[in-house]
Structure formats: C-alpha cells, structure tokens
C-alpha cells in the first residue's frame, strides 16, 4: 500500500471516535451490509463518520490490507478495527456493542 494512502486511512481512523469505511455514506448506503452497520449505529444514537470507498479506489483496496479484513464495511472504534457487518450484528444482538461504544466514547 502506498504510504500516502496509509496516512489518509490513519488520519480518518484517528480523527474520529467511530468511523465506518463503507459503500455509500450514512445518508445513502450503497449495499445491504453497509446499511446494516449504519442502522445499528443509528439505533445506538452515537455519532459516527463514514468514508465512501466507492469514491476512492485506492482506499477501497488499501483498507482491506490495513485491517487484514477482506470485506467492506469496516468499523473502527477509537483507532482500533472492530469488525464488519456480521461482527457488529453479533455484538449488537448480544448487548456488547452498546457497552463497547459507550466506553470508547467516554475515553
């Protein structure tokens, strides 16, 4: 991955408590998995930022290498990779996501 692309990714991750690399944006998700993540975060009522990987091919490819995770969307919380749609659904359903997000936002 090019150093400037890695730096852009790290800036996005470090500048926001919660950032979602997804297809589309929080107002207009462009795939069902991205929409699932947006809906879960909206239900939690937490502030989050999104980055539309469809608008930037370099970031779209590099984020998969950066996280060592092959799919989009990808959620980062306090600078750490949390997971994709399936992980967020599981954490939400077992009640862990609310607690994890509250702790992260309080720090």
Please describe the topology of this protein:
Layout: H1 3-15, E1 18-22, E2 24-25, E3 28-29, H2 32-44, E4 49-52, H3 57-67, E5 74-77, E6 80-83, H4 85-93, H5 96-106
Parallel strand pairs: 1-4
Antiparallel strand pairs: 1-5, 2-3, 5-6
Describe the 3D structure.
- Strand 2 and strand 3 (28-29) form a beta hairpin.
- The protein starts with a helix and ends with a helix.
- The protein has helices at residues 3-15, 32-44, 57-67, 85-93, 96-106, and strands spanning 18-22, 24-25, 28-29, 49-52, 74-77, 80-83.
- With 107 residues, it is of the alpha+beta class.
- The mean pLDDT is 95.
- Helices cover 53% and strands 20% of the residues.
- 32% of the residues are buried.
């Amino acid at each position: 991955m090019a150093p400037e692309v890695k730096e852009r990714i790290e800036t996005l991750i470090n500048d926001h408590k919660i950032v979602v690399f997804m297809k589309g944006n929080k107002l207009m998700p462009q795939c069902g998995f991205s929409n699932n993540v947006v809906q879960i975060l909206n239900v939690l009522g937490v502030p989050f930022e999104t980055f539309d990987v469809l608008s930037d091919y370099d970031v779209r490819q590099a984020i998969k290498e950066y996280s060592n995770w092959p799919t989009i969307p990808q959620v980062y919380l306090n600078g750490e990779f949390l997971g994709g749609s399936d992980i967020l659904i599981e954490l939400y359903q077992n009640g862990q996501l609310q607690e994890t997000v509250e702790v992260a936002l309080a720090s």
